[in-house]
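Now for today's protein:

——
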Amino acid sequence: MTFENNIARRMRGVRGALQKYQGRVSGDRRLEARGRRGQVRSDLTTAFYKLRAAFRR
């Protein structure tokens, strides 16, 4: 995984957290759900790359 991809994945998680909290504060359930999706996508991608790295060793 390249450095740029790693940063982009982490920023996706941060952006998701911000969207989730913004949706929670404003009462916008769609925005909150979109933020959760961003966080989950970031977490799943991280887990995939960690698992892949474990099998390469």
Summary: The radius of gyration is 14 Å. The helical segments are 3-26, 29-56.
